[in-house]
Amino acid sequence: MSGSNRTALNQAPPLQGHNVVTGDEALINAVTTFGSDKIIESLGQLGAEAGTAQAREHAMLANQVTPTLTPFDRYGNRIDEVSFHPSWHWLMERAVTYGLHAAPWESDSPNAHLQRAAGFFAWYQTEPGHGCPISMTYAAVPALRADDALAKEWTPRLAARSYDFGLRSAADKSGALAGMGMTEKQGGSDVRANETEARPTAVDGEYTLHGHKWFTSAPMNDIFLVLAQAPGGMTCFLVPRVLPDGSRNRLDVVGLKDKLGNRSNASSEMEFHGTWAQRVGDEGRGVRTIIEMVAATRLDCVLGSASLMRHALSEAAWHVAHRAAFGGLLIDKPLMQNVIADLAIESEAATILGMRLASAVDAGTDQEEALRRISLPLAKFWVCKRTPMMTAEALECLGGNGYVEDSGMPLIYREAPVNSVWEGSGNVNALDVLRALSREPEALDAWLLEVGQARGEDPRFDRALEAVLLLLGDSDSLEISARRLAGQMATCQQASLLLRFAPQQVADAFCSTRLGGDYNGTLGTLPQGTDLGFLVERALPKVS
Length: 544
Fold this sequence. Notes:
The chain is 50% helix and 13% strand. It is α+β, with helices and mostly antiparallel strands.
């Protein structure tokens, strides 16, 4: 304490007043590489608002006052309503207004999905929990395209830039949000073990559902895409919360999950008791239909994890730039510079990979679709796996200050594992890479063409790529080595992008560790000769 005013000394000020978009050099580089600087300009207001003290306060409140379920009204009528703190609605309203949900699907911009990805990456840094319903709304549209009539009816509602909370008929709302229900108690990721039954009604394309869903996020959203067993096999269905006549659908929210993180978001268990549903796509093709939604949510898992990395890096770099110890600022200490620089290249590698995959959605060519098919599970496996370790190291840079809730670092750390669990855990995604390799040879061709563009740029990269090819050639051990293969392929893809598009200092630091033979995964181990000053300066938040 300092004298009579009792002011604490040697404490970093709160990180606020910075532009999360225009102050992020790694993001700018990735976006302009695959799009244009006009995207950065268009996101300037979003970036400024994301860096405000107001956004930080709303994030804290939305996680401190968590959602509550009211199954019945005071008269005993079943209502199944979930209430949220006003800060949740503040965050959601801005996310929708900025078009971070389904807006790109109705846009004629050639970079609509890349712009949305950059905005999602930046705004997710305010508070990650509300990114879940935003992501699911984005992901619902490509799945709905299996039914032209349903897509025509719902896409404009889902893409509308109006946040209209509450359970009312969609015809009476200015915008809608979507969710997804796949997993059941007995199967989890093995959705073919689902037992929920779909019984056809007298009306073609309409069914009643009978069963349950073990994990359905955002139960106040307007529609859900769910899987159920129809007479013709596993089928995808659209389930509205409110029926066209304005009455409530028979969909019971049994309870809300008490989770490690993602506390601001309501994740629920649901039961169907004659719940009205519309078929999406043909009977028996439900997994193939909903996999389009899974692919889009996997992209957001990568973007969300990369966003958590960037947020954690910003907080760590900001703290050490203002905290003095052992005779000087921490940021001037060589070993701390090594840690921050290593955090920075981990963050940048995740960022550029996420933006590259978003640009593939915009391109929409056969080549890009094939690349996306194999690179999405690769990226989700690797980036999401790296996030808990990376955020823990960033938290440690703040010392005890980082371990208390007010710093915001515990929220980031609790959130870090979630994207590795959702939309397929590590094993599911690693095995999905093998499925792509075996069933779609054009996917491997696309990956080799993409990654191979960096051949000759760095001998460490060339050796790493050869090691991947050796693994691919050992078909007898592919399944037991699936994680090793996925990790090495993802790292090579990141290295290829950095070698081609990032500053030389970034690419060299990445290759010298992630592709080096003596790397043990510990952050802060960049070798002698690395331009630490450049990397640290590049990572520091720019506060006006």
